[in-house]
Amino acid sequence: MIFEGLAEKLQDTFDKLKGKGKLSEKDVKSALREVKLALLEADVNFKVVKNFISKVEERAVGKEVLDSLTPGQQVIKIVNEELTDLMGGAQSKVEYASDPPTVIMLTGLQGAGKTTTAGKLAKKFIKDGKDPLLVAADVYRPAAIKQLQVLGERLDQPVFSMGDKQDPVDITKAAISRAESNGNDVVILDTAGRLHIDEELMDELSQIKAAVVPDEILLVVDSMTGQDAVNVADKFDDTLGIDGVVLTKLDGDARGGAALSISSVTGKPIKFAGVGEKLEDLEPFHPDRMASRILGMGDVLSLIEKA
Amino acid sequence: SKTRDGFVSQLESLFRSYDKINEELYEDLEEILIQADVGVQTTMKLVDDIKEKAREEKIKDPNKLINILQDDILEMLNQTEEDDEQPTILMVVGVNGAGKTTTIGKIAQRAKQDDKDVLLAAGDTFRAAAIEQLEAWANKVGTEVISHQEGADSAAVAYDAVQSAKSKETDLLIVDTAGRLHTQSNLMDELEKVKRVIEKESGPMKVEVLLVLDATTGQNAVSQAKLFDEAVDVDGIALTKLDGTAKGGVVIAIREELGIPIRLIGVGEDLEDLQDFEPESFVDALFDF
Ligand SMILES: Nc1nc2c(ncn2[C@@H]2O[C@H](COP(=O)(O)OP(=O)(O)OP(=O)(O)O)[C@@H](O)[C@H]2O)c(=O)[nH]1
Ligand SMILES: Nc1nc2c(ncn2[C@@H]2O[C@H](COP(=O)(O)OP(=O)(O)OP(=O)(O)O)[C@@H](O)[C@H]2O)c(=O)[nH]1
Ligand SMILES: [Mg+2]
Ligand SMILES: [Mg+2]
C-alpha cells in the first residue's frame, strides 16, 4: 500500500545512489520529489507542500548532508524534524483561567466532532478535579441539544440549554451566569457546525466571542479533510483568533495531512486528538507521531537509526 | 458561478496567459486538479493523457486543451441511468458525520414530493440522540419512523422496518445506520449483517446501498469507498457539503477505480438542499476557484 511506500521508495533511491559515492544536489532533489508526492497523497495542501519542500531543500543540500556517510538518513531526519517543528511542540494543555470559570468554545465545520469533543473534554476536566458545565449553543441541527444532554447524563454533569428558540449569544451569556452561580469552574460551549464562508453564522461566533470572552477557542477539524483544510482554518482563525485545534477521527486510516496544513497556515498548536466515539477517546497530540503518519512511515526513527 | 461558462472562463483565463503549450502550463493544470482533491495519481493520469493527445493531434493552441481535459473527466465520470420505479429499500452508510441522517431527510422529502410513501428506519442505535435526530427530520417531512431504543440491535430495527414496509406496500424505505470508520472491522461486520437481514426479508422490494461521502474529505474517501463497497456492495454515492469551498474531486478516482456512480449531491442543511449529480456542473465547479 501507499502507506509503507515512502520509506521504501526513499530507501531505494538512496540505495541506488550509494554506489556513486557522495550525493549531488540533484540526487537530493529527486529524493525530495518522492517526499513531495507522499505529502500530497496525505492531503497536505498543495501550497504548504511547496513551501515545505523548498525549506527542506535548503537544509538538505547543505554541506552536512552531502558530506555525510548516510545522506539518505540525513534527508529523512531533516524532513521529519521540519514536519514535527511545523506542527509545534507538545502542547496538549488548556490553561485554566485565574478567575474561574474557564470558558472554552468549540467551533468548526458540520460533522467535525464538536459535540462529541465537548463531552470528551468535560470528562478530561472532571478527571482534573473540575466541575464543568456543558452549554448547548447549537440551536439549528435537529436534536443537537438532546445529543449534548445524553453526553451530560453519561458524565453525570449539568447541561445548560434554553431550547432552540433563543439566540446563541443570549444562551452563552446566560450560561456564564449560571456557571458562576452554580460554582462550575469550567464552561464548555458547543456551537453549531457552520461553513467558513457562511458570513451570518461566522458573525454569530464573533458575537459570542465578544459577549463571553472565551479563554480558549478551539477549532475542531476532521482528520480526513483534504485540500480545503487551509481555507477553513484560515477563515476561522481570521474571524475568531483561535487558540488551538482538536483533530478528530484519527482512529481511522487517514494520513492526516490536514494537521500540517492547519499548523502552517494558522501557526496555532494542535492540542488534542480524537481517536474514537467514546468519551474517553481523547489523547494529547504528538507532533512527532503525526509527522511519521503523514509521511506514511511507521517508524521514521528506526529508519534513521539503521544508518 | 458554478456554470458551464464559469468553467470555460476560469480555465480560459489560465490558458490565455500562455501563448504556447509548455511544461509550466501543465504544472498549473496539475496544481488546479490537486487543489480540487483529485489526487496525485488521477491528476498525473489526466495530465499525461492530454499531453499525449496534444502531441498526437499536433495541438498548438492552449485553449484546445480545455475541451480535452473536460471530456477526459466526463468520460471518467460516465453516468448510468437509474430506474427507481420498483419499491426500494435504501440502506444509507458512511463514516461518522458525513451527512447520512440529513441526506435521508432530504431524500424522503423528495420522494414525498413525488407522491411516494416513505418509511424511515432508525438504524443508528449507537450515537447519542441519533434516533431523535431522524425523528425530527421525519416530523418535518411527514413520514413515519420505525425505531427501537438506543443500544438496540440495528439489524433488528431493519428487520422490523422491512416487515412494516412490505405490509404497508411502502414505495421507499430508507434505513439510517450509525457512522463508522471503514477500518473498524467489527462495525463493518455489523453493517454486513444488517444488509443480510434486509436482503433476506426484502421480498418484492429492491435493495440498494447509498454511500454518503463528505466533499471536504481528501484522498481518504477512496479508502472509505473501497472498504464500504467490499462490505456491503455500494450502488451509488451521495456527495454532501458541496455548498462549501471543497470540490470533492476525489470522487473522480472513486468512479474510475471502483465504478461506483455518483448519484446525489448535498448543498446545504435544509430539506430542499439535495440535487441530482450532474457531471457537467460538477466538472465546471471543479475549476471554479
Ligand atoms: N471514529 C470517531 N468518530 C468520532 C470522533 N469524534 C467524533 N466522532 C463521530 O463523528 C460524528 C459527528 O460528531 P459530532 O460530535 O456530532 O460532530 P459535530 O461537529 O458536533 O457535528 P454538527 O453539530 O452537526 O456540526 C459522530 O458520529 C461522532 O460519534 C473520533 O475521534 N473518532
Ligand atoms: N453545509 C452542509 N452541511 C451538511 C450537508 N449535509 C449534512 N450536513 C451537516 O453535517 C452535519 C452532520 O450531518 P448528519 O446527517 O448528522 O451526518 P451523519 O453521517 O448522519 O452523522 P453520524 O450519524 O454521526 O455518523 C450536520 O450538521 C448536518 O446539518 C450539506 O450538504 N451541506
Ligand atoms: Mg454538534
Ligand atoms: Mg446519522
SSE order of chain A: HHHHHEHEHEHEHEHEHEEHH
Q: Averaging pLDDT over every residue of chain B, what do you get?
A: 93
Alpha carbon gyration radius of chain A: 22 Å
Poorly predicted regions of chain B are 1-7
Number of helices of chain B: 11
> What does the largest sheet of chain A look like?
8 strands, mixed
The total count of helices of chain A amounts to: 13
**Fraction of residues in β-strands of chain A:** 5-15%
The Cα radius of gyration of chain B reads 21 Å
Bound molecules: guanosine-5'-triphosphate, magnesium ion
Tell me the major beta sheet of chain B.
8 strands, mixed
Termini gap of chain A: 24 Å
The general outline of chain B is elongated
Q: Structural class of the helix and strand makeup of chain B?
A: alpha/beta
Total number of strands of chain B: 8
Which sequence of strands runs across the widest sheet of chain A?
3-2-4-1-5-6-7-8
Helix content of chain B: 40-55%
